[in-house]
Write the structure tokens for this entry.
Amino acid sequence: MPDKARINAPETSGTPGTPQLDIKWNDVSVRQWRELVRKAGQSNLLQSWPYAQAVLMTERLVGKFATIYWQGRIVGICQVLEQKLLGVFHKVRLYRGPLWLEPDIPQEVHEFFWAEIQKRYPARPWRFRYFLPEMPDTEANRALLAKFGLNRIQTDGYSSIWLDLTQPEETLRANLKQNWRNTLNQSEKKGLALELDTEGKHLNWLLKLSEMDKILKEFKGPSPALVAHLKRFTKDRGDFLLMRALLDGEAVGAILLFLHEGSATYLVGWNSQEGRDARAHNYLLWRGLLELKERDINWLDLGGINPDDAKGVTFFKKGLGGTPFTLIGSYN
């Protein structure tokens, strides 16, 4: 869909607007949504326009796009995914929203948003709600969601690491943990070559290898179908970036990054034994940071950490010296 198109037909919120607070649904164009996501700064892939389109193709969930107004200006946005079946069943998914466009949003605005969500999607038989708020795991935030009748169903919230790419290259390298930096130094002496794929010609190759990894190592990850559709809706804007490390002309490692306005997400990675020996992942991630900086990307979400079930991956990602964060968990 061209950027000048509208998201969907506008809808009313059902919430009486006031000069101070209002929420409008599907009231902006695709271009405007992209601009608002960029304004949010530390945005996430799940609130992006391409993600809504990919989920529509894979799960038949339709995106609804909320703009949150305070004092006459948009201060927040949130994408909600819905599916209605047989006029009875109703799925509602809110993944990693809302995103706020300004710091220090007043408590009344947060409360107004969650009151609107509860009013628009009240709990009822055959409505299956799943909310994963983009909120730090604090007692105050738990109390806020409980106030509006939301029940915590999973105590372990999404954890990951943000890397601030606005810093100079020298600072980013200095911030690397010493063992990570030493390993990077080793990788740069192994004769690795970098290959950039912005069209997805190597995507099926990477997905087959990563699926084998998921089976062998028993971890979950995005489905190949979802990733393939994400490529479809990002590559024409240059927001798809597959990087391969080559050793003597053979691919020994790869990472896949998706760009979403001013931020990016590390989504898929793979290493062969030769790649592990050559420290290809250190090489690829470092070169990935530099490539993102060249593309004016300010933030990178390292794609999740799990200190309990994936200690090695968590240790590796923490070595990049970013800022860890944990969200509040899932609710219904």
Remarks:
- Residues 1-5 have pLDDT under 50 and may be disordered.
- The longest strand covers residues 73-85.
